[in-house]
Design goal:
There is one protein chain. The protein is mainly alpha-helical. The chain has 5 helices and 2 strands, in the order αααβαβα. It has a two-stranded parallel sheet with strand order 1-2. Helix 4 links the parallel strand 1 and strand 2. The chain starts with a helix and ends in a 12-residue tail after the last helix. About 3% of the residues have low confidence. It catalyses: alpha-D-glucosaminyl-[heparan sulfate](n) + 3'-phosphoadenylyl sulfate = 6-sulfo-alpha-D-glucosaminyl-[heparan sulfate](n) + adenosine 3',5'-bisphosphate + H(+). One of its GO terms (molecular function) is heparan sulfate 6-sulfotransferase activity. This is Heparan-sulfate 6-O-sulfotransferase. It is found in: Membrane.
């Protein structure tokens, strides 16, 4: 009888350890909302940057944009002289977003893309492009051009074929 009770106790301990291992796999750390006892308190929900041990946060969110900047609406005139310049920042999903710009946006005249070639993104009824990106103009300003390079390069590349008096002010 005693041997059987040891086996039952061992089975319960093994089951408990298995449950703890599964729980750690499914809910690592404190991300599991079921285990956070403080999740229901208003203090924990108010500040997502507060550390669990109440030490000062090492990350302090800073926004370089005002609320008005974030909420402003910009009208893009595809038939005019407006130009979207896509600045690709490496390792941020930029390739996927750049492909989305030329393939998936519903426009009056969508971009024409052929395998292995640049996409042609012309304005409706014109032979001028509305998008400056590596998918539409190639690496016109160099490989992975940064903001400074694009600021200096884009106007000269886009306006190089126009007479000075016909160039839009940007």
């Amino acid at each position: 009888m005693e041997d059987r009770s040891h086996k039952v106790l061992l089975a319960l301990v093994m089951l408990f350890l298995f449950a703890v291992i599964v729980l750690q796999y499914v809910c690592p750390g404190t991300e599991c909302q079921l285990l956070r006892l403080r999740a229901l308190s208003s203090d924990a929900a108010a500040d997502p940057y507060r550390a669990e041990d109440e030490t000062p946060a090492r990350f302090v969110p800073r926004f370089n944009f005002s609320v008005d900047d974030l909420l402003r609406r910009v009208d893009f005139n595809i038939k005019g002289d407006d130009l979207i310049v896509f600045l690709h920042i490496q390792k941020t999903g930029g390739t996927t977003f750049g492909r989305h710009l030329v393939r998936n946006i519903q426009l009056e005249q969508p971009c024409e893309c052929r395998a292995g070639q640049k996409c042609t993104c012309h304005r409706p009824g014109k032979r001028k492009t509305w998008l400056f990106s590596r998918f539409s103009t190639g690496w016109s300003c160099g490989l992975h051009a940064d903001w400074t390079e694009l600021t200096n390069c884009v106007p000269s590349v886009v306006d190089s074929r126009k007479e000075v008096r016909l160039r839009p002010s940007r």
